[in-house]
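[retry 2/3] Potassium channel subfamily K member 16: previous attempt timed out, resubmitting with same input.
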Amino acid sequence: MALLALAHFMYQMVGATIFQMLEKEAEDHNHFQLEKLHFLANCTCLDGLHMERFVQVIRDSSKVGLSLKGNQTMDSFWKFTSSAVFAATVVTTIGYGNMSPSTTAGQIFCVFFALFGIPLNMVVLNRVGKYMLAIERNACDFIQGKTNHRKLTRFMIHLLSYLSGTALFFVMPMVVFKQQEGWSYSQAIYYCFISLSTIGFGDYVADSNPDKYYPEWYSILMASWIFFGLAWLALVINHTGEILERLNTHLKHWWSPEEPSNAGPVDEVKEPPVDG
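[retry 2/3] Potassium channel subfamily K member 16: success.
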């Protein structure tokens, strides 16, 4: 346990160091401070207080689907398809943050909806994951019955399962998001993983740009992709956890091997005869 906890701590520290090295270069406070001063110098009608108010209006407008490039808005920011995607992000705990209930009734309903929806979603995803595993095992058993290479067959089936899942839940959505959202491939693959792992930063959110027209099938495809992709990625993460558990067991045996006992066999203790 101590070795595993140390590995977990070191992994987070290494990650924090790498994130700092990669992102701190892009964090140029002086540049943005100069941009702010330049903006205020050119827009003399705005002072610091009014600019903060203007920024707040922009944030609030984007949350209700108002385009910042014009006066057009989305058909309805809370239309049924968008609401269905929002409901999926609630029960899956993704929580992008681009949409949130603003009314008191909506906020209270969201609490109870999540309270019962999250465990229900976990049960359903668990069942879907078991069906996926059952299909994979049946394929393994069928092919193993035709061949004599048990380990090779299992390896190939697992590899095929991972590759097909990657193509279905990452590669194909990546192409769709590039076409519909205008993202780069790296941004799209980043969004896929952040969504399906339920991290949900909210820096990239599909089907939420008021300047774009989305077909009706897009939201339905999004909800289906989230549901089945979560089940598949949960299986991959669980399998990765099993590999780490086995690795931890091997490391424990390697660091503290059992010492062979030098003691000889223990003689049986015979009861003394009872005098008559």
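[retry 2/3] Potassium channel subfamily K member 16: Residues 263-271 have pLDDT under 50 and may be disordered.
[retry 2/3] clearing retry counter.
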